[in-house]
Amino acid sequence: HVQSLSVGGINEALRAQGIDQLSGETSITVVHDPSDIRKPYAREMEELESVRDLSGRIIPGYKTFNSVAISGEDKRLHLLGCVPKAYSEADSGESEPGFRAQHRPDPGATGKVSPPGSRKLASRLCHRGAWAPA
Q: Is it the case that residue 70 has pLDDT exceeding 60?
């Protein structure tokens, strides 16, 4: 029996696994990476969008938004989510929380973040225009 998979379901499982694996950490760095998957020769593919190639020209492709967590002590990498823009919107009727459709980092979304009352330090980085802790 084959179960259907959704982007939202996969990402929820990744986040739950990350929370479980990182629950004992005192320091966590979260890196957000808005990336393009370039398909320069594609003409007809499902949900094909326009992206820029490395020289700045518009070509066919897909926009994604990936998030990873890096544990502070042993520097292990944990995938927290991988969201193709088109599938995220089709799956949930809206983009994943925090996803920026304009494909630019939100400088206000980078910096040190910690839940109220938490003893943990979490840092968030954005791939383009990265912030580094002091």
A: yes
